[in-house]
Every structure is written in C-alpha cells, then in structure tokens.
Amino acid sequence: MVIGGGIAGISASIDLGNAGYEVVLVEKLPSIGGRMLQLSETFPTLDCAQCTLTPKTVETGQHPRIRLLTYSEVDEVAGQAGDFLVKIRRKASYVDWEKCTGCGLCQQKCPSKNPSEFDRGMGMGKAIYTLSPQAVPNKPVINPSACRFFREKKCRVCEKVCPVGAIDYEQKDSFIQERVGAILTAVGFDLMPQERFGEYGYGEVPDVIDGLAFERLNSASGPTTGEIKRPSDGKIPKEVVFIQCTGSRDPERYMPYCSRVCCMYTAKHARLYKHKVHDGQAYIFYMDIRSAGKGYEEFIQQGMEEEGIVYLRGRVSRLFRDDGKIIVWGVDTLTGRKIEISADLVVLATAMISHRETKDLAKKLGIVSDDYGFLTEAQRKLRPVETNVEGIYIAGCAQGPKDIADAVAHANAAASKVQGLFAKHKND
Amino acid sequence: MDYLYFPGCTLYTKAKNLDQTARKCSSLLGFELKELPNWTCCGATFPLATDNLMALLAPSRILANAREQGTTLTTLCAICFNVIKRTNRLIQEDGEKRDKINNFIEKSYQGDLRVLHYLEILKQDIGFSGLKGKVKKSLAGLKAAPYYGCMLLRPFKEMGFDDKERPTLFEEFLEALGANPVEFPYKIECCGSFQSVGAPDIATECSYKILTSAMKNGAEVVVSTCPMCTFNMDHKQAEIKEKYLGFKEIPVLYFTQLLGIAMGLDYRTLGFEQNFVDPMPLLDEKGLL
Amino acid sequence: MKIELKRQMVHNEFAKKVELISGQNLFACYQCGNCTAGCPVAFAMEVGPHQIIRYTLLGLEEEALKANTFWLCASCLQCTSRCPKGIDIARVMDALRMVVLRKKDRQDRIQISEFSEEFLERVPQIAFISGFRKFLS
Questions:
Q1: Phi, psi of C14 (to 5 degrees)
Q2: Engineered SS bond to A8: which of A128, A186, A308, B143, CB 3.0-4.6 Å?
Q3: A303 with A309: CB under 8 angstroms?
Q4: Is B185's CB within 8 Å of A327's CB?
Q5: What value of ipTM does the predicted structure carry?
Q6: CATH number of A1-91+173-188+355-428: 3.40.50.970, 3.40.50.720, 3.50.50.60, 3.30.530.20?
Q7: Under an 8 A CB cutoff, do C78 and B189 touch?
C-alpha cells in the first residue's frame, strides 16, 4: 500500500507496479498529483509542472496493477510485515463515481463560490470540484461546508444538470479493509500558515502571500490564468519583495530547521515574475543561498545576472500595510544599512512543515515521528527510507523537506526496499 | 475591591493629571487605589546588566513592602509597570539573586505578589462590557489612536500583557468608552524613551514618526499610558514643529483622562493644564466638555 | 580595513566581559540583521546593533566602543523580541554601555552641567532617572 499520491507516492507506485506487484494507492484528496499539481514551473529547468506530472498521473491511473483509492484516508492499521490489515475510510464525495463520466457540467453550473484551498485563497472555487481539468481520476467531489444544499437545503443544480444522475447527497463515508505486505508512507508536506506571523500581519494584509499562492498566480491554469496580479486590486505589481526563511532557521520563534527548497523556488518565482513583468523589480531578502543540486547554483546566478534580481542579505523585521502598499522593514547586512521598501506584493517563503495529521498517521502505523511531525527514518545516514517497523517505509517530504528530484529518488529507494522485502519472503 | 497602588515619582509631579484622574475614575468604577505607604522610586529602567543587583533593590523594596500590605499591586506608568513586573519575575526565578536582595533590603519577599497594570484591572476585574455600562458620556466616536509603546508589551514572555505584534486591549478599552480606535502601524514602536536626555533629536524623530503615522490614519487624539511617552509625544511637539515646519499639532491624552471624560467628570478636574498641546478645542468641538 | 584574525582575538577579554554582563552568547548570532531592521533608532546609528555584535565577537574592541550605536539604544526591546536566535540584543547594548561607564576613568556620556535650567525644569524626572542610569558612570 502506498499512502499519499504526490510525486513520491506516484513514483513508488509505478516502480512497484512495473515490478509486478499489486499496489493500492490511498490519497486523501480527490485526485492524485499532490503539491506538484499546484506548481507552475519547476526549477532549475523551468519545465511546466503539469507537463512533467501529467504523464505520471495518467500512467498511474491506467496502470493495470495500481488501484487508486482517492478521497480516502487510513483509519486503522494492524498486523506486521507481510500481513498488514489496513482499514480505509472512503470519504463521501456525494457523487457516484461509477456513474460519473467526468463531463464537468456540474462544476460549470454550480453557483457556489468560496475561496479555493487548492488556490491558496488566490481564487474562488466551486462547491463541487475536481482539482484540475486533467485530474486523475476525473471525478468531482462536493465540499459540504461550501455547498448550498448542505448548508441551506437550497440549490441542487448539480443534481439537475448531471446527465447520468450521479449526484447522491445521501452518500456516507464507507470503510474497506485491505491486506498488504508492505506500507509506503509518502504523505507530503504543508506550509506554515501566514497566520502565524504577527510581525508580517497575521495573514491579514491582502497583498502578502506565500510561495504556493504565488505558484497559483503564475499558473496558466490558475485563478488569474498566469497573470501576476495583486490580490487586493488586480494591478500588476512593480515592486515585489520575496522573503526567504519565513519561519525557518528560527529556533526562538518558529522552526529551527532549514526548509531546503525555498532558496530555489524563491529564485524561480523572482525569475518567472521578471519574465512576465519586464519593468518590475524583484528583491529577495535572504540569509544564505542553499543551491546544492545539479544546475541549482547556476540557476541562482542567472537570476541575478539576467533578470537583475536584487538579493538583499538580511531578514525582514516587520511589514505593514500603508495606503495600499506594503512597507517592508528589512536590512542589508552587506552594506550594513536598514532597507525600507514600499512593495506592491510580498511573497513569504514559509517553512515547510508536516501535515497536521501526519503525527496521528505515524501513531496508527506504529512508526516514529519527530518533534515537527516529520516521519523518522531508521538511521539518519544509512537507512533513509526505512522506519523502526519492518515493512513500513517512508518517502518524500513526509520524511523531511526536499525537492522533487530528491523526493523521486527517495521514493524509488523506498520502492526498491519493498521489492527487497517481498523477494526475501517470496516463498512464504 | 481595593488595590495597592504605586504611583511613581513622575505621577506626583509632571504627570499629576494621570494620577489624579486614575484615582477619581477608580472610585466611580467601584475600586480604590490604596497608595503604598513610604514608596520610593522604582528606578525607571529594569537593569539589563545581569550583574547589576543595586538597580534591583528599589523595585524589590516596593514589591516586598506591597506584599506586606496585600497581594496585588497596580500601577499606571508603563515604565514602572515594566520594571516592577520584570523584577518580580527575576525574584521568582533566580533564587540566588532573591536571597542576596532580600538579605540586603532585610525582607523575605518570595515573588508572590501579583502585579497588574490599571488597564488589566479594567479588563480582568471589571470587564470592558462592564466598563461600557458605566459610561456616562460616550466619547462620540472620537478617533483615538492607542499608543502602546514598548514597556507594556515587551518582553512578551515576562509582561504577558497582550500580543506584542498586534495588541488589542487598548482598542477594546477605547471602544468601551465610545471612542473610535485608530489602527496605525507605529502603535508598538518606541518613542525614544530616555534618549530625550541622551540624544534628544532621536526622541524627537521617533515621536514625529509615531504622531504622523497616527494622524495619517485619521487620529484626532493620541492616547498614552506612560509619562515618558507623553513627554516625548506631547511636550516635544514644540521641537517637532521647529524641525518640521507645517507639522500639525495633535493632542496627547492619558488614557485615564479619556476615562474621566467618559465617566462624566468635570473637565476642569482632568488636569488638561498639564498637557502641552491643548486638548480643549478638540474636546469642545466633539461636545465632550 | 584588514583584520588579521587570531584565536586570541576571538576569545578576548572584551567579548567575554560583554557576554558576562549581558548573559548572552555572542556566538549564537548568525548576523541576520533582524535587530537592525526593526530598531527604531538605527537610522541614526553609524553601525547597526548586529554589526556591533560582530565587532565584539571578532575582538575589535576599539571600533565597537567608538561607535554611537549602543549609546543611541533606547532599550525598547524590539530587537530582543524578534531575534530568531533568542539573543537579548538590548542586554548586549547595555553591557557595552556598562563596559565603557565602568572604566577606571569614569567618563560620563552626558554632562549634567551642560543642561540648561529650562531643560531640567521641563523634562520629567522619569527621563532623568533612566537617562542617568544609562549614561552616567
């Protein structure tokens, strides 16, 4: 069983499926793809994230040996390596996926609008939704807290327009049991919410957004069809401040660790911004630049040389709204001066954290998680994908912050460990 | 309920208006401020040098004396509040220093006095809705900018007064009185404090920034809890006007002066003569006299 | 402007004294500059608080003590409240003041004799008391 349908979970599932094993892939969201679905382009190549991801999600969806259980969560785990019994909750989607043809009419006609979680609040979404037009599986779910029928007993438009009568408001959560030989946990990461940062406005300053929100702004399939616009008034920002290490490397107030990917994605954001807004200026407040991967350092340098990004070495003490602009109080320790910027848009590279539920999942699995909720590897240096429980493996950002290439390598390693386990017990 | 009260030196002289109005208002609100007998100056700064025990003696004496008289001590001046509360915390936590201090001042204070700011009494013991109920003359939507300054809020771990980045206690107080609190970014930034003695131009500049920020956000009056801040922001408007021609004056009131108006006290008893920028024209215009 | 660094400079008496008086570990500072960024009076300082810490750590006593940085500090504690490493920078600034004021030659930073009558009358005693504590030896 693979828990988590992000790039790590998908990579591992395909490896295992191709090796001849049956895979059950459990994903809590309605479709697979994870965080990569939210990205516009990936570093250092600036390849389109969807173009890289979609072949993989489609392959996973069509793979003869991979069974997708999306919109599902692990409820209980019992047993041991070779013989785990997992109870899975299949959440009520209020749509009969057997009947649904993925025509999308319900989404078109749904009158409800609410801030989209997927779009990190940058845009509105419908109460009945798929995460993207290329969702695998391409079946919608209804969010009862946003749906007019569930809240006020009105509407029912989706039911009316569905050509195959797939809407079922009476649907309930259901449970199934799966018996598997090994479990691979690849549940991914979350970002520290902006609401934590008092000195940055507690998430209430409209044009202060986080990294994932910027990805959505920059995405052609996003709420602004890829135009970099200020959320408050839709204007094109000309002075954009990026703040790295927001909540990372901050043992006194937030997380002590480095989130590893922010230096790279911030440079990417600044470069993509400049590609679209030629007369705009990007400033990046940083403490250090961590660009250790192949082509990464060159990518950073190119950003400075070609896009004219100004890197200011120092933190930002505070920012606040003033007359429609955001006043940023930072410092450039290289010149020793205080820096004040009147910004149009501020992008916070907030710390990578574990999902709130990861700790609970770890408990259910009987594996160790650390103080920050990340899953603990069996040995820090030499056993990066195993856990303290035989037969349970970890992959991707669930184990700690890493970029896509490392997550895939991690996932491939975990998949190979599963195969090793199965090969050893082939005759049992 | 009665509270032991530490006025502090400045409230007896330059900030009499803060002291007097507070006392009058407490009676109206149902509690008495029982002035601590034989009190002495608190020292005005909490010693940041860890080996400076001498500077801790004055506030420790205040705490020890207060504890002999009761269990709760209140003060109005934000600086006194900061010094006394931080000293209290130190005595609670550092046994070695506690013994040395007690030995010297010949007391046996253990750190079990509760130290409250007057605004905390209003919030915790009376409640702002209770306060609202006692308002005789609502402040008619007066646009008041609550200036917290530094000493009420920092260090947060020791003061615990309110959220140090976005405090709201003062705004709740102003709303209860019927005023319109003005949100402005400089409400938690320093006024320059004692630099009015060491580097006066610095204090002038800090105050200027605070006042212009308040005015830019629509404030008609700035409300203070500290005689040091009031000196820098009210009295130093003379220096500000010299440096920044065209600077428009804005009255700075103590929170208890506003409280006094709301409680229906005669304006002549509110000590406006001690305010540098005359608040009367504004209050008259608002019908608050 | 070149520094010829030796280990004795790093573990020097001056830095140790500052650490002792302030109770802070100067090695914890990773020079992020957050203190300087949020300091309300740093606009008038020759060098920011983070730089003074750097000078102290590297043993540049003369340069550290020559700067006006810690004299302008108003002990507002904004730096301390935002330091990601939990360093109490306000204490470090005060420690630097103490290092100077406790020197044998007892040089006061301010001269009371230079205050006018009018100044003494006008300024509230709270300012004088705290001022004297910070500026007189």
A1: -60, -50
A2: A186
A3: yes
A4: yes
A5: 0.95
A6: 3.50.50.60
A7: yes
Chains linked to B by 3 or more Cβ pairs within 8 Å: A, C
CA A37/CA A5 separation, integer angstroms: 11
Across the interface, which of C37, C78, C84 has its CB nearest the CB of A252? C84
| Distant-in-sequence, close-in-space partners of B38: CB < 8 Å, separation ≥ 6 | B65
Dist. CA A84–CA A388, nearest whole Å? 15
Chain A residues within an 8 Å CB radius of C50: 331, 333
Distances (CA, A) of B4 to A184, A199, B43, B56, B69: 64, 36, 19, 20, 8
Report the alpha-carbon distance of residue A120 to residue A5 in Å, rounded.
19
Q: Which residue of A has its CA nearest to B166?
A: A198
Determine contact, residues A319/A346, Cβ cutoff 8 Å.
Answer: yes
Shared fold status for A1-91+173-188+355-428 and A193-351 = yes
pTM here is 0.95
Interface test with C, best of B57, B77, B195, B206 (most C CBs within 10 A): B195
Considering only the beta carbons, identify the residue of C31, C38, C43 that sits closest to A318.
C38
Q: Which residues in C have their CB inside 8 Å of a CB on A? A: 30-39, 42-43, 47-48, 50-51, 78, 82-86
Domain count, chain C: 2
From first to last of its 428 residues, what are the pLDDT tens digits of chain A?
999 999 999 999 999 999 999 999 999 999 999 999 999 999 999 999 999 999 999 999 999 999 999 999 999 999 999 999 999 999 999 999 999 999 999 999 999 999 999 999 899 999 999 998 889 999 999 999 999 999 999 899 999 999 999 999 999 999 999 999 999 999 999 999 999 999 999 999 999 999 999 999 999 989 999 999 999 999 999 999 999 999 999 999 999 999 999 999 999 999 999 999 999 999 999 999 999 999 999 999 999 999 999 999 999 999 999 999 999 999 999 999 999 999 999 999 999 999 999 999 999 999 999 999 999 999 999 999 999 999 999 999 999 999 999 999 999 999 999 999 999 988 76
Domains and CATH numbers, chain B: 2-118 (1.20.1050.140), 128-285 (3.40.50.11810)
- Domain coverage including residue C90: 7-103
